[in-house]
Amino acid sequence: MFCCFSFFSKMKTDLELALECAINIYHQYAIKNPRDDYLSKSEFTQLMKETAKTFLTNTVPVRAELFKETDLNKDKELSFEEFTIVLSKVADDAHRIIHGENRCKPESN
């Protein structure tokens, strides 16, 4: 696996710290079932409720749709790679909020 930066440097950049934090949050919830390194739907729901309160509409239908949409191989679990899609969507939502844009605004083609 390719890694573009070292976690062993003395001074981590803000981006390195944010990435490390995202990885740690993923593992904090994925480890609830220690037999795997995946997020079940219930682990994902708990993660979203507890850590993404201001980003993405935090309702059951939206979380369920987000889980379904990002479970690319349809195995009813999210791998870390699939979870990065969730992070991308949360980052996009945060960006829209910061700029005062309508969070539900349809994308233009």
Automatic annotation (TrEMBL):
Gene3D superfamilies: EF-hand (1.10.238.10). InterPro entries: EF-hand-dom_pair (IPR011992), EF_Hand_1_Ca_BS (IPR018247), EF_hand_dom (IPR002048), S-100_dom (IPR034325), S100_Ca-bd_sub (IPR013787). GO terms for molecular function: calcium ion binding; calcium-dependent protein binding; transition metal ion binding. Residues 58-93 form the EF-hand domain. Keywords: Calcium, Metal-binding. The keyword Metal-binding applies. GO terms for cellular component: cytoplasm; extracellular exosome. Signal peptide: none annotated. This is EF-hand domain-containing protein. It comes from Anser brachyrhynchus (Pink-footed goose).
